[in-house]
Design goal:
The chain is mainly beta. It is built from 1 helix and 15 strands. The strands form 4 sheets. It has a 5-stranded antiparallel β-sheet, with no helix packed on it. The two termini are 23 Å apart.
Length: 196
């Protein structure tokens, strides 16, 4: 029995290390240019298509772009003079990663006031085990909930604000049916559904 648990722990650690190495490399830099312009530079170690969104404080999209050709970097000059004064967010997404910069725009001048990085958790399950891995870049309290088909909570785990979170559950004693695993971190919610 101990050998099986040790083997499972080694597989989870190896698997998680691989997923961690493949993420967390997306970077976005915004620097003030001439007049009311800002230079946006985006880079990633892996060749990717970048999805870029600028939203106002109400969540309305004021600009959206998806690069056509996969690349490791992107650099453009943006003119913010046409935007009303206020708070905006500029988000770049690739695969399972997202970087967001909160921008304060006054008279066309751009100031970065906050940054947030999110890497979606990795969920996996086989017939008997559920495994997950999550990098908590935001430092928020993280909780895992498990619900049955009737939305009854059957499990809850609080991970506090740990940066690296790995967790596994033995599902062998659960009755057959559909289950939902929900990971919450601040305002970010990730869910994973399985059928046993």
């Amino acid at each position: 029995m101990k050998t099986g648990k040790l083997f499972l722990a080694l597989i989870l650690a190896t698997f998680t290390a691989g997923s961690v190495m493949a993420t967390g490399n997306l970077k976005m830099n915004i620097s003030t240019g001439d007049n009311e312009e800002a230079v946006v530079e985006i880079s990633n170690l892996k060749t990717s298509v970048f999805q870029i969104d600028v939203k106002n404080e109400y969540g309305e999209v004021v600009f959206q772009k998806k690069t056509k050709v996969p690349s490791t970097n992107y650099k453009r000059v943006y003119d913010f003079s046409g935007l009303d004064d206020g708070t905006y967010s500029m988000t770049v997404k690739i695969d399972r990663e997202m970087t967001e910069k909160r921008l304060d725009i006054r008279n066309g001048q751009v100031n970065v006031v906050a940054e947030k990085k999110v890497v979606e958790p990795f969920f996996m399950h086989d017939n008997q085990y559920f495994k997950m891995s999550y990098l908590n870049f935001t430092g928020e309290d993280v909780k895992l909930y498990v619900y049955d088909i009737n939305r009854n909570e059957i499990y809850q785990k609080n991970f506090s604000s740990d940066f690296t979170i790995h967790h596994g559950l033995d599902l062998s004693k659960l009755p057959r049916g559909n289950y939902e695993f929900v990971l919450s971190s601040g305002n970010d919610i990730f869910d994973y559904r399985i059928q046993l």
